[in-house]
């Protein structure tokens, strides 16, 4: 007789566009997974959404999530990553991180994960080709470059723009607003360029991965193109992501989280 599958409890930190999409998919049913808890800064704002779910999860404080879950999905502002991550990792749980850029400035989180036999998981998100980069990194990668084009409204409020006094309000044609490393990009655009951080972690690191960012009033999608030169393959890929209700984030990001979670409990796993 086949043994019953153990159901993994999933908790979500943050119920913005991505958190809600992940919560709704889990509520609809994903084999081997259940939505157990959510945490957010203002629980009152999520009441109406939670009422639409067939099974209402517990609403708990950020630092209590680990006690309600086997896997915690971080869908919160980057500045909250440490507060969310440390309790989860110290309890030896799995943490799915979307604020990947914040990992670059908090390397101690990886050390905590190693010490407590926990695991930090980074979904592919908006970046097609991440599996190929991981494979190429098993050999020697010579260079990685990413060019991102984004609608103007998706860049509003980015620290890099504020720091350099860049005003995009009256932009009428594409403008290159940043050129530098993935580490610099993640710092200057914490809500926009987690894809650059993920790319750098998969490949040759945040200080050798080069990034360009263009504000383009003619596009309605977030467009990413990566170019990789390695000793095993040379390749370039482009993806145009349809924005979610949050223009900074593509719809495919939530799908990527679900795909990662599904892989954790699936008897057949496709992809690196």
Helix-strand layout with pairing:
Elements: E1 8-13, H1 17-28, E2 33-39, H2 47-50, E3 58-59, E4 71-74, H3 81-90, E5 94-97, H4 100-104, H5 108-115, E6 119-121, H6 130-136, E7 141-150, H7 159-163, E8 175-181, H8 182-188, H9 194-202, E9 209-215, E10 222-230, E11 234-241, H10 251-265
Parallel strand pairs: 1-2, 1-4, 2-3, 4-5, 5-6, 7-9
Antiparallel strand pairs: 7-10, 8-9, 10-11
Helix pairs in contact: 1-10, 3-5, 8-9
Task: Give a short synopsis of this structure.
The protein is of the alpha/beta class and 272 residues long. Helices cover 30% and strands 25% of the residues.
Describe the structure.
The chain has 272 residues and is α/β, with parallel strands linked by helices. The protein has ten helices and eleven strands. It starts with 7 loop residues before the first strand and ends in a 7-residue tail after the last helix. The model has no long low-confidence stretch (mean pLDDT 93).
